[in-house]
């Protein structure tokens, strides 16, 4: 009698070879790694700018931090000192601007209250205008000198819209303050564990990209160092020079305009509007000599900084043409905001290095890999 049990009639299960199984596992691991990487970046998408800023701060401070660490030894308080230093660099000017802005807002509120009670007195120069003096005088007297009509005009402003804008500004300030705090936290841990981070980054870079990965990293780090010197330090220098000029020529709010000039000068050619505004304010105060001094000195300082100092500092550190540097700065600032001032040149430096390696003749350096 034949044995017809299921154990004898079930089809044989094919057994894959170890090579195909290993290949399938490698593809599965790669897919899992990519999925985890993407989902991690998506989870941290709102904090990525803060993490990138912390990385930029750490890269910029690392040479100085290592020199200080070699002198005083590796301590737990040294990263805290450097982090506090960076915080003060940003918070002190912001506090000064905030205090000054609060004073200006208080003065503006008092002016609005006085205008509602007494109107806006007509300046002496309105009746002496070369054209349309009579019409301008009549319009001013009918609309601005009368408290009743002016009060009606002020009440016609959409108060609810103004309050909504105030809430939005407050929300943005709170959000950016939180991101700045996370940037400082990232900076602290990068400084504290910098040696470990560098070691692991080098191991991972060699495994993924070989020796060229380390070359790209060095090129991008050199670009960040050059950008720090060529944009931030040069911008601060321009602000200090022009601030002294503002003070000596009697410009209004010289400290505030000096800080605005320093911030604007961190982007090439952007300091011109600030210097021009101060010159116009001096001209409005009938200070013709002061306006000429500020305009001429500002033109010389900006021209020298943008055409000689910046190319030497930024391009010299990466051996990159200044056109590439300028495109990286302007394109990065337009795409990434202030963070793009550092990311843009770093990306262009990496692309320039890849282009150099790609177009290099193998006979020029037989030991160098060609992509």
From TrEMBL:
Keyword Aminoacyl-tRNA synthetase carried by entry: no
Record has Membrane as a keyword: yes
Topology in membrane: Multi-pass membrane protein
Annotated localization: Membrane
Protein name according to UniProt: AI-2E family transporter
Family, per entry: Belongs to the autoinducer-2 exporter (AI-2E) (TC 2.A.86) family.
Record GO cellular component, one term: membrane
UniProt-annotated stretches for the region Disordered: 1-20
Keywords: Membrane, Transmembrane, Transmembrane helix
Coiled-coil positions: none
Organism classification: Bacteria, Pseudomonadati, Pseudomonadota, Alphaproteobacteria, Acetobacterales
Transmembrane segments: 32-65, 77-99, 173-191, 228-248, 255-282, 288-305
Subcellular location, principal: membrane
């Amino acid at each position: 009698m034949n044995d017809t049990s299921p154990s004898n009639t079930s089809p044989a299960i094919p057994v894959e070879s170890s090579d195909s199984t290993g290949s399938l596992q490698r593809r599965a691991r790669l897919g899992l790694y990519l999925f985890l990487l993407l989902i991690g970046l998506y989870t941290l998408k709102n904090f990525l700018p803060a993490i990138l800023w912390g990385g930029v701060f750490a890269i910029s401070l690392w040479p100085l931090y290592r020199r200080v660490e070699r002198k005083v030894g590796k301590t737990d308080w040294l990263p805290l000192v450097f982090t506090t230093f960076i915080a003060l660099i940003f918070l002190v000017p912001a506090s000064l601007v905030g205090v000054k802005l609060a004073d200006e807002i208080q003065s503006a509120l008092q002016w609005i209250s006085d205008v509602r009670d007494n109107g806006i007195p007509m300046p002496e120069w309105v009746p002496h205008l070369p054209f349309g003096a009579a019409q301008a005088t009549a319009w001013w007297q009918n609309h601005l000198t009368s408290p009743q009509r002016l009060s009606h005009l002020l009440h016609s402003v959409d108060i609810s819209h103004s309050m909504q804008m105030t809430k939005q500004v407050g929300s943005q300030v709170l959000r950016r303050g939180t991101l700045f705090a996370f940037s400082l936290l990232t900076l602290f841990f990068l400084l504290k564990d910098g040696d470990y981070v560098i070691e692991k980054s080098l191991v991972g870079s060699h495994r993924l990209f070989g020796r060229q990965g380390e070359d790209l990293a060095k090129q991008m780090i050199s670009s960040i160092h050059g950008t720090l010197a060529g944009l931030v330090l040069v911008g601060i220098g321009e602000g200090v020079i022009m601030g002294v000029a503002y003070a000596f020529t009697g410009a209004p709010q010289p400290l505030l305009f000096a800080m605005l000039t320093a911030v604007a000068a961190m982007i090439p050619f952007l300091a011109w509007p600030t210097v021009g505004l101060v010159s116009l304010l001096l001209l409005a105060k009938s200070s013709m000599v002061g306006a000429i001094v500020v305009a001429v000195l500002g033109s010389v300082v900006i021209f020298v900084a943008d055409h000689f100092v910046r190319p030497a500092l930024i391009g010299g550190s990466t051996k990159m043409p200044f056109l590439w540097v300028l495109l990286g700065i302007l394109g990065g600032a337009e795409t990434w905001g202030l963070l793009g001032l550092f990311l843009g040149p770093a990306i262009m430096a990496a692309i320039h290095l890849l282009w150099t390696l790609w177009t290099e003749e193998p006979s020029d350096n037989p030991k160098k890999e060609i992509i």
